[in-house]
Structure to design on (220 residues):
């Protein structure tokens, strides 16, 4: 197995676990404090986007101008609320068949990375007992450019020791698919195929991904 040259990179939110609902609750709470509503439809704009950019979008929605001090305070407040929401996360929140795929790849000695905009990726993986599957974690603490810039995936590939063209990326956001494509990696969309139409492959979720399909992606 040592001659395998393929790396698999997973996004976190909406791919491994559904933490998007907790982000939404935290952003909605902040919006209410600032005096306006924040809808599920508007929350779609936040998929795959950094926390800083999310707050910029939220303030635009509310028509609110902020000083740098206010902006920084609200960034921290949102994250404190989000961390409170995820405090009680456990393995029951892992999305269907994700462990099956991770276990299969791990048993084949395939290097696995996380590539996420989240700054809380590691504690979340610890809470759901999946951290041990990942050879490296590249998240919002390690990158300066948000998706659709490919930086997060290129760093992950480098840390795995795998050429970008031999990396497979699982993403649920348009910005993430664009980032994977920009990195010349194989992009796999998890979610709505129409929304993620730029992905090379599309699946509703991991229950549709067969082990035989994974084998076709592995380069020896």
């Amino acid at each position: 197995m040592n001659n395998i040259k393929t790396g698999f990179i997973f996004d976190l939110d909406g791919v491994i676990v559904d933490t998007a609902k907790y982000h939404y609750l935290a952003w909605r709470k902040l919006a209410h404090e600032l005096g306006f509503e924040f809808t599920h439809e508007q929350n779609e704009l936040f998929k795959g986007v950094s926390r800083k950019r999310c707050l910029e979008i939220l303030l635009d929605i509310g028509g609110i101008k902020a000083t740098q001090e206010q902006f920084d305070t609200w960034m921290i407040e949102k994250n404190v609320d989000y961390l409170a929401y995820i405090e009680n996360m456990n393995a029951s929140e892992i999305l269907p068949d994700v462990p099956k795929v991770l276990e299969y790849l791990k048993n084949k000695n395939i290097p696995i990375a996380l590539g996420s905009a989240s700054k809380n990726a590691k504690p979340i993986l610890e809470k759901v007992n999946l951290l041990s599957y990942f050879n490296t974690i590249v998240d919002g603490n390690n990158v300066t450019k948000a998706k659709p810039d490919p930086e997060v995936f290129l760093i992950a590939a480098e840390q795995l020791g795998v050429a970008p063209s031999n990396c497979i990326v699982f993403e649920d956001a348009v910005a993430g698919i664009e980032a994977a494509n920009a990195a010349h990696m194989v992009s796999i969309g998890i979610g709505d195929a129409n929304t993620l139409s730029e992905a090379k492959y599309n699946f509703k979720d991991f229950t549709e991904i067969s082990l035989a399909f994974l084998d076709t992606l592995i380069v020896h």
The first helix runs from residue 20 to 34. The chain has two domains: 7-18+93-217, 20-86.
